[in-house]
Amino acid sequence: MSIDGLAWLLLGWLILALGLWLCGKVRRWLHRRRFGKPVDHEMLLVEHGRRLAGVLDQKTLAHILVTEVPDAFRTTRAILLLPAEYQLIDVMGGELRLPISHAAVRWVASGGEAQSTGRDRLRQLIEQGRANLGWTYVWVPLMRGTDLRGMWLLGARVGSLRYSPEDLGCLTNLGRQAAVILDAIHYAEGERLAAAEIRTLYHRVVAAQEVERGRLARDLHDIVLQDLCAVSRDLKALESQSQTNEELFGDLAARSSEAVRTLRGICHDLRPPMLQHDLATALKALIEQMDTGTRPSFNFQFTCAEVNLPDDVAVAVFRIAQEALRNAIRHADASEIEVRLTSYPDRLRLTVTDDGQGITGSLVPGRFVEQGHFGLAGMRERAAMIGGKLEVQTAPDYGTVVVLELPR
Fold this sequence. Notes:
The protein is of the alpha+beta class and 408 residues long. The protein folds into 3 domains: 41-191, Beta-Lactamase (2-Layer Sandwich), CATH 3.30.450.40; 202-268; 273-407, Heat Shock Protein 90 (2-Layer Sandwich), CATH 3.30.565. It has helices at 3-35, 41-53, 58-73, 103-111, 120-128, 165-241, 246-270, 279-290, 311-332, 365-370, 375-385, and strands at 78-84, 87-90, 97-99, 115-116, 138-144, 147-154, 297-302, 336-343, 347-354, 389-394, 400-407. α8 (279-290) runs parallel beside α9 (311-332). A hairpin with a 3-residue loop joins β8 (336-343) and β9. A 6-stranded antiparallel beta sheet has the order 3-2-1-6-5-4, with helices on both faces. It is 57% helix and 16% strand.
């Protein structure tokens, strides 16, 4: 090849390279003019993916999707619609309502990806619908498998910029992450509602139990106990008058008196009469009843003259103290048990302390329930029922402390 031919070849290559460079510059200029400054989609996914992973409620999720992400895309408006009674409603309290059966919703959800309203079909469906959706430019379905968890709508971008295919892909990925978070929120909310229902049921069962205990205590005291007292009195009168079968009358009188004492104890356990006065008096009577003069010894201290609480609250505190004392007597092998009732301006604290052998292993209530022991779980539920908090502190050979704190 001659020198002239080589020169022309090099010149051709230079012209081609210059043309390609100019074409690239023009394409980038047109892309920037049409879609604006390129968005770092990878950084956006990492940053907001991390934010979405820590979301615990719908309001926080809506703030990210409606405020933070649109700011990154310079979007003028965005809303998040979530299902409620066969409709998609604005989670931030807006007036927009969209039936889940809406043709546009079904069409976008079937695709599972962000759709631009620039497409003729979606634009026509929006214009045919009753809701005012003319401002929307992008629809992002929040899909979990084939289930629609919500719809994320975004408006126009500042400066009449359009959404690029890369933008739509990024929005689709964020929508899928949001759908996973909505699933987790929905599951957690279901668990919370189930726990609340169980707690409400337990509250009603306990309340009904206390009412029945009160009724039994009244019936036993007013009917059975009075009849036994009359029988015991008559037997003693016959014993003093009769000269025969003195031993038989004495035995009958002793047995009826023992029955009277037993019934009094049952009535006291069913419905402590001292609770009619105040909690401190009832706890003092409970300790005196349990204190047999042998091991363990009891010590009761309280820093308030009277503690007047609503009836259901006083009964719950009394039952927690009763169960804690019974556990200490039965299982702790303690030499001393102390009960302390302390009143503060903002709370009431009940503390039951023993110097026994303590509890080994985990204090998770489920562990004891599986073993057939419901005392600790019952105390925790009673505490939660009255808005209190129960804490158990224990260590092997160092005893156990049960602390109940009740806000005023």
